[in-house]
Predict the structure.
Amino acid sequence: MSDNQKSDNQKSDSRKPEDAFTQQGRYWRNNRVELRAAGFDPQAVRSKPGIVTIGSPYTNAHRCNNRVRRIADLLTDALDASGHQGLIVGAPAVSDAVTQGTPNAGYSLVSRDLIADCIETGHRAHHANAMIVISGCDKVGAAAMMPLARTNDYGLVLYPGTSSPGSVDFEPWASKGNNLTIMDYAEARAAQQAGRIELLELETLEKNIMPGSGTCGAMFTANTMSCITEAMGMMLPHGASHPADYDAASDIHDDVKAQVQASVAALESLIRLRIRPRDIMTRKAFENAITVAYAMGGSTNLYLHLLALARDAGVDLTIDDIQAVGEKVPLLVNLQPHGPYAMVALHEIGGLPVVMKELLDNGFLHGDVLTVTGQTLAENLADVKTIAEAGEQDIVFPVTAPVAPANNHISVLKGNLAPESCVLKLSGKTLQNGEFRGPARVFESEAATLEAIQAGQINKGDVIVVRNVGPVGGLGMPEMVMLTIQLQGRGLGADVALITDGRFSGVSHGILIGHISPEAARGGPIAAVTEGDTIVINPQKRTLNVEISAEELNNRMKDWVAPAVAAAPGTVREKFTRLVSSAHFGCVQ
Ligand code: FES
């Protein structure tokens, strides 16, 4: 490791590494009366150098994080066996699948910073000197690196795993093989509501789609964030794609157990080598993460979360920087929602390292950045098999013949409807005629839009405008996934555009624009759109416009009045609306 790879914090630390590290844990370790009362043996604890926070966003309420307690216990044992003390620190784990489409959907994004705050608080308040954070569902995955970035204490992230896929023996799903995910079920549910499939088929899908625990099983937001974490170098190689278990009745997957042991060993080597999170989470590492997320076909949520993480890591990164890196990257991986495969299919052919090797070999990644292995990214990938060596498969494509060429996944657009910015998700598809032009169908809530779609009131060619669902107006910027699922399930996904100041799930696909900033509730021009206005989306010019004059737009906004915040004073969501920045800046608080 060269000097310029070390953080300022590290350079100014002249103490011996062991002393600096051990000293930091003394307030907890030496508090004998408190240790005794809590059931610790003060004598045994005294000799332990590492007081390690185990960030544990555990709940038994949902499949995404219900394996976290088991992992935390295994980490505690592994740390103990290595002579360290693990201290479990709790945090909430909000499931998008449980909250989407409900009045509590806003708690999802709100929870991101809350989770990071909880782990940071427990870590500091217990005087720990290192950290292993267990991630999980979307916002937990987004939050996991934040306390590491904020504290810069030694540590890394461990992923509890994604859901194993399922299969059924009737079409159109049988031909997908063992690659069915929650997306297939959600779209089938919409198809059944529209009378396109039988109830019995839906019930069979429900029983077979997810055999056990784990996050949504393809390139949705949780796996986007696990890939970003591995690509950033903050998770061990091959750690972003394993299944959580074998089925709901089994123990956790052996690959997760192996990651537990390896993560504790990696933590020890990070301490020995004096490599702290900010030595790893550099500007180059962020660029690597963006590149990998685009090559994987990641969720639009990556924009919000990378901006927030960059703020916490002290890295100068803007939404335009993410676009500038991402637009050069071809779509290489054929996972849902844009392709047919589940995440576990990628894991079985070698996982993310196979994708990263292809990107590195073709000059898309910085190979000289440090990672939690203590080695550089290039060193980690040196012995990884190439796509050619992975054998015959159509899951990872080469840069020379990608799933889709560069600049066809997510783009940042601007225009008179999005003076700051918005994000367009095409997932490798292109728009006929180079643009989408259609009449605005304006709704003030997700529920009202859903009603209109289900009532058959949306026509091919329409541009659905859902507003007042941004960070402030939606009390946490809910995901409009129920709407995109309905459009897909009713066969309207290729013919209807949806634009919103809310956001999308990674499951969402179609012609979708989210994160419109400023949002309607803060006086953004999306508030001025009226039914029937012509909306024009142009990916080549990167514009989102409503075809009215600036004068007309201004006239309409003269009558605009900010809506009252609908959250009770003192609640988490009320605090969030007071503090939150626009999506253009990552919805940071
Ligand atoms: Fe948790 Fe999708 S709901 S990962």
